[in-house]
Structures are given as C-alpha cells and as structure tokens.
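yo

u said u wanted the structure for the complex thing, so here. seqs first:
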Amino acid sequence: MNATDLEQLLNDIKSGKKDVQEAMETLRDFPYTDLGFARIDTHRELRTGYPEIVYCAGKTTEQVRAIFGFMNEKGNNIMGTRAPEEMFNAISQYFPEAVYYKEARIISINKKEVKPASQAIAVITAGTSDIPVAEEAAVTAELLGNNVIRIYDAGVAGIHRLVDKLPEIKKCRVAIVIAGMEGALASVIGGLVNMPIIAVPTSIGYGASFGGISALLAMLTSCAAGVTVVNIDNGFGAGFAASRINNL
Amino acid sequence: MNATDLEQLLNDIKSGKKDVQEAMETLRDFPYTDLGFARIDTHRELRTGYPEIVYCAGKTTEQVRAIFGFMNEKGNNIMGTRAPEEMFNAISQYFPEAVYYKEARIISINKKEVKPASQAIAVITAGTSDIPVAEEAAVTAELLGNNVIRIYDAGVAGIHRLVDKLPEIKKCRVAIVIAGMEGALASVIGGLVNMPIIAVPTSIGYGASFGGISALLAMLTSCAAGVTVVNIDNGFGAGFAASRINNL
Amino acid sequence: MNATDLEQLLNDIKSGKKDVQEAMETLRDFPYTDLGFARIDTHRELRTGYPEIVYCAGKTTEQVRAIFGFMNEKGNNIMGTRAPEEMFNAISQYFPEAVYYKEARIISINKKEVKPASQAIAVITAGTSDIPVAEEAAVTAELLGNNVIRIYDAGVAGIHRLVDKLPEIKKCRVAIVIAGMEGALASVIGGLVNMPIIAVPTSIGYGASFGGISALLAMLTSCAAGVTVVNIDNGFGAGFAASRINNL
Amino acid sequence: MNATDLEQLLNDIKSGKKDVQEAMETLRDFPYTDLGFARIDTHRELRTGYPEIVYCAGKTTEQVRAIFGFMNEKGNNIMGTRAPEEMFNAISQYFPEAVYYKEARIISINKKEVKPASQAIAVITAGTSDIPVAEEAAVTAELLGNNVIRIYDAGVAGIHRLVDKLPEIKKCRVAIVIAGMEGALASVIGGLVNMPIIAVPTSIGYGASFGGISALLAMLTSCAAGVTVVNIDNGFGAGFAASRINNL
Amino acid sequence: MNATDLEQLLNDIKSGKKDVQEAMETLRDFPYTDLGFARIDTHRELRTGYPEIVYCAGKTTEQVRAIFGFMNEKGNNIMGTRAPEEMFNAISQYFPEAVYYKEARIISINKKEVKPASQAIAVITAGTSDIPVAEEAAVTAELLGNNVIRIYDAGVAGIHRLVDKLPEIKKCRVAIVIAGMEGALASVIGGLVNMPIIAVPTSIGYGASFGGISALLAMLTSCAAGVTVVNIDNGFGAGFAASRINNL
Amino acid sequence: MNATDLEQLLNDIKSGKKDVQEAMETLRDFPYTDLGFARIDTHRELRTGYPEIVYCAGKTTEQVRAIFGFMNEKGNNIMGTRAPEEMFNAISQYFPEAVYYKEARIISINKKEVKPASQAIAVITAGTSDIPVAEEAAVTAELLGNNVIRIYDAGVAGIHRLVDKLPEIKKCRVAIVIAGMEGALASVIGGLVNMPIIAVPTSIGYGASFGGISALLAMLTSCAAGVTVVNIDNGFGAGFAASRINNL
Amino acid sequence: MNATDLEQLLNDIKSGKKDVQEAMETLRDFPYTDLGFARIDTHRELRTGYPEIVYCAGKTTEQVRAIFGFMNEKGNNIMGTRAPEEMFNAISQYFPEAVYYKEARIISINKKEVKPASQAIAVITAGTSDIPVAEEAAVTAELLGNNVIRIYDAGVAGIHRLVDKLPEIKKCRVAIVIAGMEGALASVIGGLVNMPIIAVPTSIGYGASFGGISALLAMLTSCAAGVTVVNIDNGFGAGFAASRINNL
Amino acid sequence: MNATDLEQLLNDIKSGKKDVQEAMETLRDFPYTDLGFARIDTHRELRTGYPEIVYCAGKTTEQVRAIFGFMNEKGNNIMGTRAPEEMFNAISQYFPEAVYYKEARIISINKKEVKPASQAIAVITAGTSDIPVAEEAAVTAELLGNNVIRIYDAGVAGIHRLVDKLPEIKKCRVAIVIAGMEGALASVIGGLVNMPIIAVPTSIGYGASFGGISALLAMLTSCAAGVTVVNIDNGFGAGFAASRINNL
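structre next:
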C-alpha cells in the first residue's frame, strides 16, 4: 500500500470513480486472500517479479496442498521450500507438473519462464556435507532467474583446492559461501575477491560446533569486509538475497 | 596473486624479461609492506577501487600514525575507523588535511575524488540511540563513493513514522537497517521493500538485550527474505557491503 | 488460608463453635487432598472462579486418570493441558463426557456452564506453524469463560495482512500475540493498539531461532511498551493470564 | 492511522472538504514531527490518554531538551525515564516546573491533571536492593493515573513478612512483583492471589544471577499461572502495562 | 592411602615384617582391581562404610555384569544407578537376588544389613513429574542406611500444600528439595526450616526451563542461606550427600 | 509461624487469654519490624540460634545503619556481609564496638558469646587469589560458632601440596573447597575424604573461566559423590551451610 | 604449493623444460582431483607422510565408496573416521581388505607399512564411558605410526587408581587425557607429569555437563600449564596431533 | 612423589639410614614451602628443568614480593606473568636485576642461563591488536629456552601476507597461531604446514566476538587436523606448551 497507490485511490474517490465504501474495501482486501490458516499474498509477484514462496516445514500436507491449489489457479510460479520427500509425493498427485529437487528439498511448479540475469552467482561449500544447504541456495537462485556456478568441497584445510577456482568465482557477480565447523572459508574468500559475499553457516560439525553457532559467530566477526550473513542452514535466504543483488 | 598475474610473470621469465630470482622477489614482495607490527596492503586500491581502511581500535596512536604516514606517501585515500577523538587530535598534528567525523568515529584523508554511484543507499535507524552506528555506516558509504539518505528514529513502535518515508527509501538501491532492542525494524522493512537489505544489530538496550544479541538473533531469524546481517554495531561493515552492492 | 478465613476460624474457637483440635485439623486439611503422588487443590474453584487445571505432560495416564476421577466426584470443571491424543483415548473410556481439542492438546470435562466475559480476547499468530500454540491459548481462554477472535498468519513480512484486521483487534479487551522466529509481530501490534498485550514466543523456526529463544528475547526487549511475555510455547499461560485480565 | 480516521479523510475528499494534495499531506504528516534525530508522536496522548514518554538513556542532554521543548509547546504531559541526575539538573534550568524522582530516575512535567483509576496497583519487592526498579514502576504508574501501594523487602526467605500483607495486596487490581536473585517471589505470590501479576526480574545478585537472567528464567517458567514477565530491570514497562490493565 | 596406613607400612618395613618389594606391591595394588575397562575400588566399603556404587549409564550390560560379578565375590553390597529396566532384566539372570527400583532406576544387591541412622531425611518434590528424581534420591539414601520421609507435589503454586507438612519436615535432620521449572521450592523451604537443605534441580518443564538450567540457577542464587545444590536430575548425588550429613 | 505456635495461640484464644483482635495482631506482627525499606526478622535468633545477617551490597550506608541500629537495640549479634571498607568506616562511628574483617568484607557486632561446635570446619583454597572468598566463608563460620582450619593455595597443579594436609582435613567434620579456573580441587578432595563437602566456585581466572561459570559447572558435574555446590564467590553461603551441618 | 616447488617450476620454464601453458596446468591441477562432490588431495601423503583421512559422518555411503575407490587406485593408505558399522558393511563388499575398529568407528585400508615412532603415546580416560573416544584417539595414533599405551577408568574420584600408573605414563612422550563430566583429570595429570598433554573433553555426563561443555571449559582453564585442548569427543584430532608431536 | 623416590625412601628405612619419623617428615615436607597464603614448589626446577612461574594477577604486590624473595634465596630463575607495570615498579626496588617485558606483562629474574633448543618456535598473529598476547607467548618461550620467530599481522583477509612467510614458518618445529575475531588463521595455517600448531584465541574484536568466544569456538572446530587450543588470551600457556614440545 504505497503512496502512489494511495494517491490514485484518493483521486478516484474525488473524481467519483470510486465511492468511499468501495475504496475502504479495496484498501482492506488489497493484497491477500485468507484461507483461514494462511493468508496468501496474491499480488507479490506483480510487485516483486518473484513467485510466491511457501515455507513447508511446520505446515501439514493438507495446508500446503490448499495453498498450492489457490496459487495454481492464479497462474503463479510456485516454490515450496523445506519440503520432505513424502510431502512431495502426496502433493505431486494433485499437481503432476510439480518438480522435486531432492537434495535442496524444494518443490517447484513453473508456469512462466523466468529469464536469467546476465551474470552468474557462485555457490561455494567448504565440505561435502554442506551440499544440501548449497543446493537449497542454488536451486532457489535458479528458480528466481539466475545462472549458478557450483564449487563444492573447497575448504581452507586444503586451500589450493580453492585457489585455482578463483578465476571462475571472479566472473560471478555475487558469491554465496557455505561452511560449517569453524566457517573460515567466508573470511578467506572475502580476502580474495571483490564482490558481495553472503555467508551461510551450516549445522555441520560436532562438539563445539554447537549446531552451527561456531560458524555463525565466525562469519559475523569475519575480518574480511563485505561479508554479510544469513541464518544457520538458510540456503533459501542466501539464494533469495543473492538473486536480489544479481538482478539489480 | 591471481592467475593472470601469474601467467604474465611466467611469460616474462620464459621470454627472459625477468630472471628467476627477480620473479621470486616479485612474488614474495608483491602486495604488502611490512612495518613490523603491521603489514600494509599497498595494492588494494588498484585491485578494488577502494582506499585502504585502518581499524584503529586496539592500535596505539603511534601505530596508526606510522600506517597513515606510509599510506600518505603512496598518495592513497585513507580511512580510519573506530578512532577515538583523542587519537584524531594527535594524528591531525601530522596530517593537517585529516577530517574527523565525530559521531561516526572515522578519520579520513582524501587525496583523490571518488565519484559517487548513480543511486543512493538508505540508512535507517529504529531509535535516536542507534545514530552513532548509523553514522559509521553512512560516512563509510559516502567515503567509498555513494550518496546516502538518512532516516533516523523510525522504529516499529510508531510504525506511521516509517510508512511515509517508504517512497524515499524505495528510490534507493540498497537499504541499511539499524536497530537495537528487539530489532524488528529489519523484518518490517524487509516486508515492505524489494531491495537488498543489510541489517545491523546495535548494542542499544538493557537487560535481555544482552549487548545486541537479541537484535542479532531477531535479524538472523527474520521472517522477511532478502535480509542479510552483519556483526553487532558494525556500521562500517554494513556501509562497506552496501557500497559493494551499490557499485555493481 | 487468607486473613478472613483465619479470623472466622479464631472467632469460631472463641465462641466455642470449634475446639482447638478441630481447628487445627481444619487448618491442616483445608485446601487439598493427597493422592500420594499429587495434592489436589479442592477449593481452588471456590476461591478463583476457575476450574482446577491439570498439566498432563510428565504424568502417567494412570496418574491423570486418578486426578480426574477425584475431581469428577467433586463436580468440578476439569481441564487437562499438554495431553497427547493417546492419553485422551485412554482417559475417555472412563470419562465419556470428556472432550479433546486436538490442536490445543487439551482435554476438558465441563460440569457447569461458565458465562463468558462481555468483551473478547484476540489471539493473533505470525505464521501457520504457530497455530497449535494459539489453539492452546484460545481453547484455554474459552474454557475459562471468554470469547476469542482468532487471526492466524498475520506476520510482519506482509504487514498489510495485519493492518486490515486492526479494527477487529481493537474491539477486543486483551490481545495474545504469538510468533516464532524473530517475534517482531509483538512489537508491531504493540505500536498499533492500546490494549494489554501478552506475547508468546514459539519454538517455530530453525538455526538461530534456538527453539524460541530469539523470539523470547525480542519480545522481552520490545520497543513497544505494554507488552508482557510468557514462556516459550506457553499458550496455556497466555490464555490464563488474558482471561484474568478480561474478567477484571 | 486507524480505519475510522481513514474513512473520515476519504469522506472529506469526496465531499470536497479536502483536496487530494491536502489529504496526502495530512496522511503523511499525521502523527509525528521530525526533529532530525527524533520523530515525535504528537498525537499519542489524544489516542491513548497517556502522555508521550521519552527514554532518556542513550540520548544526549541536548536531544532530550529539544524533545521536551517541542512537547512542552504542545501542552502535553511529559515523562522522561532512565534520566541521570545530571541530565535533570541541566534540563531543569529550561523547564523549572520539571520534577525529578531520584530513585526512579524519572523526570516529569505535568501540565494536566490525570485522574487516578478507582483501584490501586500493588508494587512488591523481594529485597531492599530492588527498590530503584520498584520506584520506576511505581512512579510510572502514578504519573499515568494510578494509586500505588508499595510493599518492599518481602522476599520468600522470610515468607511471614509477605503473608500478613496479603489482605492489602488482594485489595489491588494488579500486582507488580519485583525480585532479583532466584525470583521466587513471583511464583509464591502467584500461588496466593487471583489478580494479574506482572513480574520484573532485577539484575540484583551476583555470580550465577548473571545480571538478572536467573530471575528472568525463573519468572518465565513460574509454576503459578497468571504471571507475565517484562525485561530485566524494566520497572517502566511493568508500570505502563499495569496501568493499561488497571484502566480497563 | 592415608598417613596412618603409610606409617604402619613403613614401620613394618623397619621391623622387617615386610620387605621393600612386598611393600611396593602393597602400595601399588592397594585399593583397586583392574578389569581392563574399569578399575574397581575394592576397599571403599572398609574405608567409607558405604557399598561400592556403579554408574550404569554409558556402560554396556556386559561391563556392568563383570563389575557386579567381581564385587559379588568380595561379598560387598552393590548399588547400580541409572540402570534401564532391560539392563536389570539381563543382569538379574546372573544375580537372582538383585532388586530393581523401577522409578529410581536403581539395581541393588544387599549382602549385609545397613543399620539406619537415628533421624530421617525428608525428600520433597514440587511436582508429580519430579518423582523419578526423588525416588533416585530416596532409594539411594535408604540403601545407604537412612529412613526417608517422602512428600511429593508440594510446589509453591499452592503453598498451603507445603505448610501443613512442615512439622513432619522439621523432625528430619536433612532435607532434599527437588523441583524443576523455576525451582522456587528450595528458597521457600529454606526460609521456613533450619536444617541443611540439598536442592536438586530437575529437567522438568519446557521452553525457558532449558532442561533444568532455570531451576539450577534459581537454586544457586536462592535468597535462603543454608541451601546447597547438586547437578540437574542428580537424585543419587543428593541422596548420597544427605546420607553423609545424616550419619555425622 | 509453626504449628506449635499456632496451637498455643488458638488455646490462648479458647481459654480467653487472648481475644481475637489481639490474636490477629500477634499473628500479623509476629516476626518482623517494618523500617519501610526493609523488614527485619526480629525473632530469627530465637528460632535459629543464629544472629540476624545483613547483606550490605546494594544497600545504602544509611539503610545499613538504620538496620544495625534497630538490631542493636534488641541486643542481637549482628553480621553484615559484602560491606566495603568505606561503609564500615561510616558505620563504626555509630557503633564503635563494630569489628571489620577486611579480606572477608564482613562487619560484626558481637553482643553475646557463641560457643563453638566441638569439631572444626576445613576451608581449603586452590590458589592465593581465592583467599577473599575463603575468608568470607571462614569468618562467617567463626561468627556462627565454629572453629575453622584454613588451608590456602593447595590446588591440583601441585597435588603434593594437598596430600600432606589430608590428616588435618580429615579431623574436621565438614570441608569447604574453594576454587576458580577449572575447579578440579573439589573433585580431588571429594575422592580423598569422607565428610560432607561444600564447593564454592570463584570468579578467579580469565578467558574461558567466564567469571566462575567453568568452575561452577565442573563442581556441579564432579565425579566425586558427596559434593554440593553454592553460588559463585558465595563464601558466606558456604560458611553458613557448613555451620548448620557442623552444629547438627 | 611452497616456495621450493615454485622456484623449481620457474627454473623449468626458464630452461625450456616446461612451457607456460604446461606450467599453468601443473599449478592449477597440482594437488587434488575433483570428484564433483569432493576434492581429493592426492599428494598429501607425499608431503606429510600421513595417509589421506576421510571424515565419513555427513557423507553418503556412495560418496565414501567413490572416495575410497579413487584413493585405492593410487595405492594410498586410507583411514575413514566416524564411520557407522552399516557403512563399513557396505564398503567392505568393495574393499575386502578393509578393517573396522568398532569402538573407534574407524575403517582402515593399509597398503604400506607405517613404521612406529620410538616412543609411545599414553591414552588415559577418566571413566569407562569415555572409552569410545579413547579408542578413536588410540587407533588413529596407531594407524599413523605410533605405539599406544591405554589406561582406562583412572578418574580423580579414586586418585590412587591413577597414581600407580604414573611410571608407565612417564615413559611415554605425549599423553592424551580424555574425560567427561568435570574433566578434572587433565589438571591432575598436568600437575604430575612433564610431557605435552592433549586434553579431550567428552560428552559423557548429564545435566550441567551440557554435552561436554563443562569438561571443555575445565580443560581450557586448567591450572596446569602445558595442557592444550581439542574439540569435544574429538579423539581423532587428539590422536593426530599427538602423532605429529611424537614424530618430531 | 614418584615410585622411584618412594622405593629409595623405603630402602633407606630398611637399611636404617632413616627412621620412620624422619621418613614421614621427608614425605610430608618434600616438595613445597608454606608461606601461609602460598605454597611454593621448591623442587619444580630440579624435576622439570623449568623455573618456577608465578601468576601475578589476583595477588597483591606484597604477596608477589614475598614469593619472589623466597625463590630468590634458592637461586632459582623466576618468571612472573600478568604483572601490571606498577607491580614491577614496586618489585624492582627489591630485586634490581628484575627485567620487565612491557607488552608481555612479564617480570623475569634470570639466575642461570637456559640453553635454547636447536629449533625455533613460530609465533604468528592475525592482527596488530593481538600483539600483547603474542608477546606473552614469545617471551615465555624465550625465557624457557627457545628461539622465537615473530610474524605479526598476517591475517586471512589478505592471505598473500601470510603465504610468503611460509618458508620461514616451515623451518620452525612448532607454531603458535594467535587470532581474535573469527580465528580463521589457525585453520588456514593448519592446512598449509605440517608441524604441531597451538592456537590461541584472543579477546580482540567487538559485538559477536563475545570476548574471544567466537575465535575459541572456531579454533576448537577447526577443519585442519593437528591444531590444539588453549584458553582465550592465554599466551603464557601456549608458550609453555610449545616449549615442552620443542624441547622433546
């Protein structure tokens, strides 16, 4: 409900195009539909260019199906994150065109082509175990209209595995750096490249990793400027933010 | 020491332009000068377009003066962050052209004009007490070549104070959102605008604010996608990262 | 054992209505019955107007059945919270009039009508996943004699979904605001309405949500005055406290 | 900016009482005045019946004076919390009618009488050291129009010191319970009275008190239903919330 | 290996009763037998009057059986704590005289009568869910030679349920107070009685109980002097320490 | 207000010795005197054999003086803990018989001789820096009527410094073990002696000592049974609890 | 890619032994092979004398098999840590020469004999439950070419069980000390021997053990100099570091 | 008091060289002298080759002077750590040969030459602010008989500043890596060199550095094997442990 919309509405009232009750209705019902357990933002794609995104964890399969069904009728692209495989199996019976990205745990229904941005996003992990989070980031970015370069298992314990990939990374516009344990990879890449870096701590590790807290703290206190951080294991958030930057 | 530099060097050896000992020297001494207590990256500006930046906290005035002196001779722009006023007073006797941004605690010596990017960065705070962190972000961004729009004291407890500033914010390319206490401002702005948002938790508050931890956690777990986070009170980091994005 | 009761007792002794041994017995046995593993407060309803409430988690089904059985004989209303469905199934064989509120995990046996207060309580959640906690709050409040207005999935990431519900909320006397992740909803509503607000952090979220700690801290440090907080996921406590306020 | 205000404005436009530009202005400038470093909510008292309240900690004396000066012209009651004595001394030269509550650290300028609610608020502390927080709560409640009964040093280590005050407490409509260390007082009072209780943990104590965390956790996990909690040392928040409840 | 033993040994050498090699052997092999995975203190009962106690959690059934077997041959009383029921079932086939205390999770084999101390130990819990920890404390104390008075579900939310049990508690020599959630019971009893009190926080509760941390902190910071604390859920430790005090 | 007192009172009413109003007064005013900011338990010594104890930290010198003055008139022994030297200097002008234990930070006014228990209490520290906490424990125990044996700087890094003191320790009835850093001394002594041990973690140490948390956790999880723990730096609490045990 | 290698390469170019493209290839492909999900450091053994080590937790059986297969072809010794038994069962079908150390959870394929160092490493545990971590340390050290002396269940609660093993420990060159709960064993051994000590906290214990945090903090703050610490339960890290020291 | 000492003592008794009382005295008084507030280990240098080391923090100047005085008479080398400059000024009046290492805060009195080990120890810091901790490590190692190579300000944000120092580092036998903030330097060096590495987290940094916790956690969870960790800011501990390893 920005100032332009509001001014238009006021002008419509003044000119008699809309009466007051009607205007009140417009204002109230403007941007969402209420399913009782969820309020769907039906205009988000118009405003943002992005499809509506459903966080599936903590929702029942019935709830997700109802939300997808409503969105499907509107002809929107749909993306569901943190969806377990069983949820996809149940959902896909109703939406046969749905695609499941298993490692990323993402369900997608694409109705309209999204043209990718001209430059790519680099998705880099420290270890093999970080790949599921990386895939969530990469698939999110791809569905939002970006090409992605994946560089996995390039942690600092063998820094030569990273160094020769630098030319490839430097051709990208944004980098997502994903690491668990001590999360040092974000600082090292931050000292070697010049692009915006989004760091994702993962819950990989044991003992004093504390489910990702150590990596999170390390990334927040990184000595390399230009690094910003998202929540532990939040591949989606990193992919989404990187896409916003890449589409500037 | 990227692949192109290395290839050039190797070609120079092969062609006889450089001998091996000389090449070894070049490789070793390439990018910094050792002052004993500090190693100054003399080529950073060439590579990154940004001036060298000195984190003054934890350094003695003598150390800062020596670093500034070295950089000054090279003709670089200089920025010193987290500098207490007494340090500036001592420093400015040797560098009369130095400027002090008191609230931001930044010392700057500008040798070369930096042309600002075409779009601005919005710096928004929840409260009056967050202004010092905001000024650190804003002055950093300005010295790195950006126009900044400041919107201070727009916290969610009186959300109308924020709403009418939205048109101004939406004209910017990146937003820095700065808040202490419960840090809700980042989520609220994240739900209202479409640009990349860098959230800065501040140590403002008492009791269960825990020196900024509450705001930090709130920003990391923000329900609004597209928000990335920097360290508590890290205005510099936010201004630097925003500048990188704004200059893409 | 309040002062009035005591004075009456003393007067009864003085007047000879009661002898000392009898008075001692009255004082000792006054307010509860000892089942060995539990001491039931048989007079609570008289004093407070509320039915006795049993926290079922951590009790065996046998223990809950014994407590219900004892209370049932007294003709009290009974409410059991945090009861898993299997416990209800076992219990309902002995108390066929028992009702189970599945999402709220509450078992209720109503013996006497409770007349609802004149004004309603608003129960508002940020997301769909917060609904179980909301239902615990709502059902608790209803069983204690309140009308409840439910507004679910109104989080700040799409603040327009909240704004048009404000007139409805403002007609209530108390609001319960339930949110996980960064818990910003409590601050936003606290800045928009004038009634007492009870905030309930939920354990919804992942990573730096830390099982509800982030939302808890955010709510405790809320910049909006007039917000008080209960324990993580404590829908019952919020419903109970809201009912106390609504029945003033 | 509630629905009623908006509807009136729209009707004014339709009827020609206001033109669109003017309406836009009204909407934009509606509820605050921008001092640059602070945005003052000039209509809050009209809407809420409460004076505007300034949190002085983290503001400079100049900022507080400017805010007070602006509000003073509007004829509002003014309350400044967390104000050190030196700030009051500087402020009182410009506002000779200002009153300072030393233990509560509150500055007040009363322009209009506030008629107290019919019932009182009980403010109870566990120890002598909790008195400053208690005074902040009590003075806040009094300035907002409530009578307050103070019961100090009634901690559970000598529970008889509490029991004989129960009749007095029970006559109040709301109780504020303030305790540091293990915070047990909130649970004990919660088990003895029937009114809404707002618990305030204080940072009193040492070692494993952890600056009030122990008391905070104890109050949040209180076994007594009906207890809600505010931030550590947040006497103001407790007084404000209690006043809202007492004025229902 | 105390000074008396050593002096005796030295005298034996001097008098020729023992030669040096033999003395060395005595000293080395003195107090334990090495089973490879465990070193059993075979003389503990002689020195302390208490049976050897085996902490079964983290040991395999085979390891426990081997330790029991060794001790059994020596004719010692045996106590195994934290033993799951399946371990008892396996063990009891080899030691048919073994007894299992189900709620306490203790296996006991009694070879010699232990005469109880003249005064009893009071074991008091705040709630029904604390009973397993209480039983571990009570059974430990009983096996170590103490009479125990059990008072369960006497939490501060209904303080009258505690008050009438005070005469019984006051007849004991030591009290063990067991509570989860906010652990206030320890402070309240500490303010009402004069005996040594050992407080046991339990992991009962949810949310901000943090698995017993809240109760632990509350007990450590108790405003009632004379309260000492053991580890969360450490019923055994409380029973053991209470027994030491009761047998002084 | 125990059952015996109550029964006597009831009998007095029945026999006409007291009328109801008088009895109510007795019950209400029974055990304390209200100074406004503090409620003094005037009968504690009668009930407990111990002098009243004032925790001076967080109280003003005026408050402490008023409390001492009141108690002084009653002829009680007085002990004030956590008293800074300046407070003593101010206090001693009014109570010239007051004694100050500088390292222990205790003020004492002894009116009546306290006969020491037959056996002593051992107070043992790991390091020299733990001595102030040890003195608080030792002086508390002495003023409450105990002989104390002090063994300082006997930490486990040089375990032979402890071993030869064992005979002396074993002659005591209770041991207080005081250690900062990793707090291992409690476990080591707990494995060598048979008496009740009260462990006091101190805030001595740096880095990961976290102000005593490491020692606290180590003592709570001690592998030696029979160890109970008090709050960090709580020498008073340890001395008080040890005295209770020693006087059994 | 150390300076010697680089110099050789540069000389090869100058002398014409290698051309520039070939040199670039050598530099880029030097030390690893990319399997897509993992980058294997094929030259590590040459450089370090140690076999390549695979951390199996968080990898799928297919991934581990592919890595083993690649390494197997190169003729390297292979060690896989944190491998569950099912993974070994699946793996051993492809590599029949693979050996499984069950308690240590290590898979090993030995192609070349590793000659052990002249002195042994002592691996000491406080309890029986620490044995799995100890075995991970011991087997790691053995596979890396060290003799190991195992001393299990020698905790400080019965310090005599440790003392008589000191001569054996003192013959070793390095000691690994493994303990959960309060971790005091590291301090005690650190005070008794003169060799480098690597302390491993384990997650053994309950309540305030907090999954090994208490032992970790105790070991970090150990009053005995010469103790260094690895991550909780990190037997591998301790064995690896001890081997490095033992092979100096 | 090892087995050899004991055997000798026993033989002396048997042979009549010593009588029992004398032997008891020897055993008791063996290794320390009791100054009342401190027990000095007079034989440590004989046994360990290292001078006695006094931790000065938390001791009064008088205590330190008395300890130094005692040791001085014995002719021992003396080292005092964490000594503020004022303490040195006071001490040096009594011991004019005392030397003060200002950045390291170490006082040293050298009586006997210590011959350095054949290989050096590398002390590397990430930043300029880490130098005081590094100096504590370096001076400790030097006083204990080691040559030290200092490499300061070589953090990962400019990794080329580290790479060219690798040949120098690789010539050392042990490396001490010192870093605050995110502590990534330990992992990076751990991946580049083959020697034992002792990591020292420093309290340098702000916000989410949490006084060194972030660096500590990062170092404990380092993906590079062979890294062990000491307490935050514990330069002494690192220097001491490195010296032990270097002198193997």
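The longest strand of chain A covers residues 120-125. The interface with chain D takes residues 3, 6-7, 10-11, 13-14, 19-20, 23-24, 27 of chain A (CB under 8 Å).
cya
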